[in-house]
Amino acid sequence: MNEYRILVVDDEEDLCEILKFNLENEGYEVDTANSAEEALKMDISAYNLLLLDVMMGEISGFKMASMLKKEKKTAKVPIIFITAKDTENDTVTGFNLGADDYISKPFSLREVAARVKAVLRRTQQAETERAPEQIVYKSLVLDIIKKRVSIDGEEAPLTKKEFEILLLLLQNKGRVFSREDILSRIWSDEVYVLDRTIDVNITRLRKKIGIYGKCIVTRLGYGYCFEAE
């Protein structure tokens, strides 16, 4: 399943429901709004992508996009315009407003799915390229480039697997990862690894990071997470 959230904004309720149904079948989490006014009451920054109709009521898709791009919190949310207008001027206007793609009605649902996937892939790559070189939590510093963890300036001698587990948990503070999640991400190339291997590595990791060991919390029946104090 994908972990992306998409907001579809279109004044055609039937079209919203069709797009919602099909995109959810692709594994996305999808919400809908039938006007820009309704959408602007929502937390736009929580979405990974907007599918935005151009021709709506008092606030058009172009106007809504312009409003979003002026706000720091929503400026980087990707936008795909969906519209019956397909003139060159409208397309240029859309891209000048920072649109990531432009789909003209009528369209095939396969085309929409393909374009959504392409935009999300591009934006994910861009986010990865802007990823920080270090993750800092209080006096705990994880250097992604140098593959080094230090506490109060003193290096903690982590193994490769311990480092990768800590990186995964720190990058996703508060999120619980099951043993299966950790195995698939950290031991992806290994043929057979026991669940017990995860527990052993977590135990060693907790000891090596001292006072921050208690931040690696066990959620019985679910898995592990890094919980900020």
Automatic annotation (TrEMBL):
Keywords: DNA-binding, Phosphoprotein, Two-component regulatory system. Gene3D superfamilies: 3.40.50.2300, 6.10.250.690, Winged helix-like DNA-binding domain superfamily/Winged helix DNA-binding domain. The keyword Transcription does not apply. The modification 4-aspartylphosphate is found at D53. Residues 5-120 form the Response regulatory domain. InterPro entries: CheY-like_superfamily (IPR011006), OmpR/PhoB-type_DNA-bd (IPR001867), Sig_transdc_resp-reg_C-effctor (IPR016032), Sig_transdc_resp-reg_receiver (IPR001789), WalR-like (IPR039420), WH-like_DNA-bd_sf (IPR036388). Residues 132-228 bind DNA. Residues 132-228 form the OmpR/PhoB-type domain. This is Transcriptional regulatory protein ResD. It comes from Bacteroides clarus YIT 12056.
